[in-house]
Task: structure prediction
Amino acid sequence: MNLWIYPVSSTEVVRDFLSPNGDYSAGHRGIDFATVEGESVLAVADGVVRFAGSVAGRGVVSINLADGYTAEVEPVCPLVATGDSVLPGRKVATVCSGEVSHCATTCLHLSARRFSAEYARGFGYLSPLLFLGAFAPSHLVAIGSLD
Result:
């Protein structure tokens, strides 16, 4: 797994990932970064823009990444179009919260999910912090003999 780059200059997470109990249950399917209106939003890795437009009054950019995951950012004003190829660090949008935001202050929401046959409806959200290198790898430790 290749590490992603941060989409904005801030690495301050103001709201963490909260896994839902099921496909349609409540949760926070991403992380929110503290940011400012108009800040540049960068592609986290190389891929192809799956969607760039408005959903429920918020600007969204969704990128299918070369590693098989999809990264999505909102609320933004997109600077790319569906089908565009992007490289890590390419400016794909600006933070553009407008009237609709789920943060108390200006923020950027980043989500990560895996599309596969088992997640055909687009579910399979993971914490983007896994891809940003924020967690140390886990190690199994032998505590005794199996004899």
In short: The longest strand covers residues 47-55. The chain has a mean pLDDT of 85.
